[in-house]
Write a structure and sequence with these properties.
Order of helices and strands: HEEHEHHHHHHHHHHHHHH
Structural class: mainly alpha
Strand order of the largest sheet: 2-1-3
Strand content: 5-15%
Largest sheet: 3 strands, antiparallel
Shape: flat
Amino acid sequence: MAEKSQKLESYVWEGKDRKGNKAKGELNGSNMALVKAQLRKQGIIPDKVKKKSKPLFGGSKKITPFDIAMLTRQLATMMKAGVPLVQSFDIVADGLENKGLQELVMAIRNDISSGSGFASALRKHPKHFDDLYCNLVDSGEQAGALEAMLDRIATYLEKTELLKKKVKKAMTYPIAVVVVAIVVTAILLVKVVPQFESLFQGFGAELPVFTQMVVRLSEWLQTWWFVVLLGIVGTIFLFKEFKRRSQKFSDIVDKYVLKLPVVGEILDKSAVAKFGRVLSTTFAAGVPLVDALDSVAGATGNAVYRDAIMNIKNDVSSGTQLQVSMRQQDVFPVMAVQLTAIGEESGNLDEMLAKVAEHYEAVVDDMVDNLTALMEPMIMAVLGVLVGGLIIAMYLPIFQMGQVVG
């Protein structure tokens, strides 16, 4: 047990299998002797075993929520196949390439093998396993249905992360349009316009008003470009800091971002989908509705829905039906309220909430696809107007000279 708790290292080996054929590969172990012993157990005679050389730059890859979802799915599959929990961790760790994730898996495995509960071991790593995850695992352990709970958690994580990815994609496109437009305009004003300006100085005639405006803007940008750059970077930095440090400012941003065209609607529907997904998962796991609403409030990702769900929690605590309170909040779509009402009346609330999640996840998917299709010609149109406008401004004096000469 002490050997298992030692830090694992990666070893590369070369040798021969039972048939005498040459073989090579990579294996994890706490020391070289144990790795050789493990290879012999597998029927391999090792000729050469050495520590895997570490890359010169960079260490462990960052552990992402998708990694945790994949890990949960693998554990659920192993346990459904009848593999004991500790052995499941060993098998999963051997197949991981991410060193950081491998160390996390082995740390949890060592805690469990030394007598800790699964949920207790997970709570030592709050950066990767939030309260909701730990509480669900705890419920699964208590009910003696850990493999079914892990399967449910894996589905929840996969769906949630897929939804986040779609929302991120929806947010990225408008930002990409603005950034590309700014960069192209700046390059034209700083590099191209000055070439024409030197040409115009030899004309001796007054330039058109539009051309004069562009030339002045070009001169100003050449002089103050660093101030503009610092202003943009500073604004982005201050916005992020205010949002991180000030709860009030963050709540105001959450409120107004829902009112943005297209993107606001996508964020709104994704919050409803998260509400349905998290509440369905927790309620199906046997968590009381009032306690489940606590987990849901923080998971929606928006202050408007967080406050609405906390109001619902207070109403439900005092005996109000979930669907009645949802209707009173005036933020949930009619379909979400109606499906919840059917679920309460039929006693299948978790199934109906799952349908709410599936419906609004599909809605978000369609809206993101439509936004993507809309943004592609919009990028071309915006760039066309900017580039075309600057070109017209530069060629207007030349056209006027041609008319005078004609």
